[in-house]
Amino acid sequence: MRLCGEIEVRDREETLINLDPIQSGGRLTADAMKAVIAYGDGYSVCDACGKPFRLDHIKKPPLDAFHRDLAAFVNMDVARVVPGARRGFQAVTHTLVEPGQPVVLTALSHYTAFLAVESAGGVPREIPADGDHRITGEAAAATLEAVTREFGSAPPLLMVDHFDYQFGNEHQVREIAKAARQYDVPVLYNGAYSVGILPVDGKALGVDFVVGSGHKSMAAPAPSGILATTGEYAGEVFRTTGIRGDRTGRTFGVKEVEMMGCTLMGATVMGLLASFPHVRERVTRWEPELENARLVSDALASIEGTTILSEVPRNHTLTRTDTTGSFDGVARRHKKKGYFLTSALKDRGIGGLFPGATRVWKYNTYGLTRRQAEHVASAFREIARENSIAVR
Amino acid sequence: MRLCGEIEVRDREETLINLDPIQSGGRLTADAMKAVIAYGDGYSVCDACGKPFRLDHIKKPPLDAFHRDLAAFVNMDVARVVPGARRGFQAVTHTLVEPGQPVVLTALSHYTAFLAVESAGGVPREIPADGDHRITGEAAAATLEAVTREFGSAPPLLMVDHFDYQFGNEHQVREIAKAARQYDVPVLYNGAYSVGILPVDGKALGVDFVVGSGHKSMAAPAPSGILATTGEYAGEVFRTTGIRGDRTGRTFGVKEVEMMGCTLMGATVMGLLASFPHVRERVTRWEPELENARLVSDALASIEGTTILSEVPRNHTLTRTDTTGSFDGVARRHKKKGYFLTSALKDRGIGGLFPGATRVWKYNTYGLTRRQAEHVASAFREIARENSIAVR
Fold first, then answer.
1. Is the ipTM of this complex over 0.95?
2. Do A4 and B34 touch (CB under 8 A)?
3. Candidates 3.90.1150.10, 3.40.50.11270, 3.40.50.720, 3.40.50.300; correct CATH number of A2-24+284-386?
């Protein structure tokens, strides 16, 4: 169906069970959809903006309270909305990192963390993953020690994902933060795959910055996200402007430099806001999500020649699997080649996998009902059997 | 009407003629509204993202062609979508400006231009406005000369608004760019109040960067905007990542550092895209917009004690007026105080002015029909007469 011009209506979420690795946590709630319709216009939230003219002070819609709620949600002191988690990373690296200084991140860090380091002129130093693709506190301590020796002083920042984008594995954030504290290194917690889908307590983890993604895990339109921090660092990362016009003497009030003033003035922040009560509630239902994830990963693992590359049992709904020894064998003799798998899944109402992938690929079961998860699990087994692959 | 929770439905655009200074150019078109509904979910445009995995390469929806269309629209060579004009400024200052270097902007530059300079560590030097609040080529040349002497070398960047946010006055961009060229200084054109509402030709103006705002002037949701540049500067401001994981050896392909990879992955870019055919057409209808603007500014000027502070005749729909000698006199004796004016306008179906403002205030007539503009003009005259102010 044509939406307008050459744009097709998007119906992936309406017509298929979507296993896309990055989309499921960002599906809008019904309330977010209503908010996006009512507040779609550009500067829609600025109707009642008054002194001191900053997004987080607007009372109608209740963005001021929302900012406080966001901070409390991740148990930090101060929060701001940002145009995506990556802009949260950027605000922090630009605040703390001088050109030439090292930043510790991990062998599984997302590319946007690297870009944030690069844009600040920092030098990346990765904490290696262990044999199970996990980042440990021990490895963090060793890397911090090595980097401190290499550069003659401790790095100004360590960035760690709670769950990484490659395997969806859980990393030892608490232990890593403890190690960082011994070197007096502030820690940025990348919650792109956690904030909004499972409970996150920044203080309990001992981190200094919590970053979340609206479009990845908070049921909001892109680009959106949050950056939360402690009272200690809020004054730095949310410092207000100090620049002054040399001719006019103009100054610019309480605008925050790293935020570039206001950030999300319409549909994006309203999507976050309207979804928030649902998001706050859904994080308490992480266990059933994990049960669904395990149901599907168990089904895949039961197919001969298939390996779950992520940690098992699954602690996240994002999973990486290797079907080189199973579905890829079929692909090599099938007339549809690699597309046989996506095609067979589509026949069963399942979509969102990378088209043609039959070797190493990722999927995400987040948001599936139990029945949908069972259907997906059965579908993988069925497709294996139909193609003469043994299922245990 | 309640949307959900404590969020009210926004109906300003449905129930009133909206004169808000910053909102009119960002009202969604009907097609943008449809696109926002169909593509509201987080990473909605990533359904068919394939190698090399970058927003401007996506073919379905046709974002690749859209990026080329955007560049052509402002007659530049390369364009990217960004999370608001301010993020376009930031990308340019972070590319060209070293800490301590001067950046020439103007006595009427927007605060976000200053923040972009501040975040890069630059030192602002303002081109003064003339007595009519206009920035001339002559003043630019004098400032460039003075700054070059002060710092011992030419500044790395000059930023100028085509129309400023304070008066909506038109500035001598072509002459300013000519002066900059003599000092070999690249020019950033801030088209937040032009790109999307009137024709803009970057090459003809002789500028190096064209920045536009989606939510201010391109009928798109916030935050959105464009940054376009020449072939000469595209390689710098859109440089691809060169960072490398020290342990894993990972590199990050064609991701662009200043863009932080992809920028607008859903509702925002789809709003821009769906509105684009309408935006491209509406810029050719700038003359009738100016006629409406002049109709209203003439009406205000006909009210005794009222001054149009912007240049007259109006060359933009954004106008600054001083009613200290007219409506403010009423406010001082009226039981509703300053709110009498917004209240009287509201009774006539007109809204969007800063509540309580009766001295110096701004309004924008963009997008009004002729009949609406006539109604607004009459309303101001009527309110004056009703309050015993002479109307010429």
1. yes
2. yes
3. 3.90.1150.10
